[in-house]
Design a protein that fits this description.
Elements lengths: L1 H17 L3 H27 L6 H21 L2 H28 L1
């Protein structure tokens, strides 16, 4: 059992300590922004007692998506690049729809 724990501790060190550089930190920041969109959406829904998607959801999506795309490009990950690239189009379109709706309401 101690050998398994030592192996696991070494793996954690190799993954989370040895690899730390600017790009890993950027990836964590990007993932945090991306995660915050769900927190914002959940809190808004709880407050309204119904499912709500606030504008902040799309801004967190955009911020996290841009940083994750930069991270994916640096890592040269084609699956991640394609996924984040398409997501950015959707986030921007939703923000444009929201802006158009606000202009019509005014």
């Amino acid at each position: 059992m101690p050998e398994i724990l030592n192996s696991f501790a070494q793996w954690l060190h190799d993954v989370f300590v040895k690899q730390i550089d600017f790009w890993v930190i950027l990836g964590f920041v990007a993932q945090f922004l991306f995660m915050m969109r769900f927190v914002v959406q959940w809190l808004a829904s709880e407050k309204a007692k119904r499912s709500v998607v606030p504008v902040a959801f799309w801004f967190f999506s955009l911020g996290g998506g841009v940083l994750l795309l930069v991270y994916a490009i640096q890592r040269e990950d084609p699956v991640f690049i394609a996924g984040q690239g398409l997501g950015l189009v959707i986030y921007l379109r939703n923000l444009a729809l929201i802006r158009g709706e606000k202009r019509r309401a005014e």
